[in-house]
Design goal:
It contains 5 helices and 11 strands. The chain is of the alpha+beta class and 217 residues long. It is globular. The N and C termini lie far apart (36 Å).
C-alpha cells in the first residue's frame, strides 16, 4: 500500500517529511509493544557474519528482539545483533520509532542471507546491524563489524558514492524528493530518534552519502 503514495501527498501528513513535528501516534502504535528481549549469541548463531580475527567476540554481542511497525501498518517482531554496550539505547530508539509510526519492512540478522552477503540484505530492504565486514574500498573495519551500526530500510535509503550506489536495485530511490514512509530525510523525527541519542547519520556525510546508516562509536 505504501508504494502507492506519491509526491502529490501533502508533506505535512507524513511523519517522515523533512522538519515535520513528531506525529500523534496511531492506534497501532498506541498499543503497548511487546517488551524487547535480549539474549547472548555464539559464533554458530552469527554464522558467516563472524569469523576469528573479527574486532569483537560473540560474547560482546547481543541479539535484541524488538517490535517494529511494518509496511502493512501492523506490529512485527524483528532481531538486531548489536554490541552489548548499546542494547539500552537500541531498545529506546526502536520504541521511539514504533511510537512515530515509522515503518520497517523487515529486521533480521545478516546471517539470514547466503554468506552473510550485505548486498543481498540491502537489496531485500532488510534492516540489520552486526556484520563483520570492511568498509568497501578500504582496509578498515566498518562499524557494523563492532555491532555499532544499523542500516535502516536500505533499499529505500541507499548508500551513494561518486562511483555508484548500493544496493544495485535502489536506482529509483536516488531521488531523495520522494516522501514514501520508510525513507529518511534530514530533520525527520526518525533520524532524530538516533541523533538525539548521540548516533551519527550517514545521510549527513559527503562521500559516501549513506542514507540508511546510523552508527554509535
Amino acid at each position: 500500500m505504501w508504494r502507492l503514495l506519491t509526491a502529490l501527498v501533502v508533506c505535512g501528513l507524513l511523519p517522515q517529511c523533512t522538519g515535520a513535528p513528531e506525529p500523534t501516534p496511531s492506534s497501532a502504535a498506541v498499543t503497548q509493544p511487546e517488551p524487547a528481549a535480549v539474549a547472548s549469541v555464539t559464533s554458530a548463531d552469527l554464522g558467516a557474519t563472524w569469523r576469528p580475527g573479527c574486532p569483537v567476540a560473540p560474547a560482546q554481542l547481543r541479539r535484541v528482539t524488538l517490535t517494529h511497525l511494518g509496511f502493512d501498518a501492523r506490529p512485527h517482531r524483528g532481531e538486531l545483533i548489536v554490541h552489548q554496550e548499546l542494547v539500552p539505547q537500541v531498545i529506546a530508539i526502536f520504541e521511539r520509532l514504533y511510537r512515530l509510526d515509522f515503518p520497517i519492512e523487515k529486521m533480521r540478522p545478516a546471517a539470514h542471507y547466503r554468506g552473510g552477503d550485505d548486498e543481498l540484505s540491502m537489496a531485500d530492504n532488510n534492516t540489520s546491524a552486526f556484520n563483520c565486514r570492511r568498509i568497501p574500498g578500504s582496509g578498515n573495519w566498518a562499524q557494523h563489524a563492532y555491532g555499532r551500526a544499523i542500516d535502516i530500510n536500505p533499499l529505500l535509503n541507499p548508500s551513494v558514492t561518486r562511483h555508484g550506489f548500493e544496493p544495485k536495485n535502489a536506482a529509483v530511490y536516488l531521488d531523495r524528493r520522494r516522501i514514501e514512509p520508510g525513507l529518511l530525510h534530514p530533520g525527520d523525527p526518525a533520524v532524530r530518534a538516533f541523533t538525539d541519542a548521540g548516533w551519527r547519520w550517514g545521510g549527513d556525510w559527503k562521500s559516501p552519502v549513506d542514507y540508511q546508516h546510523f552508527e554509535r562509536r
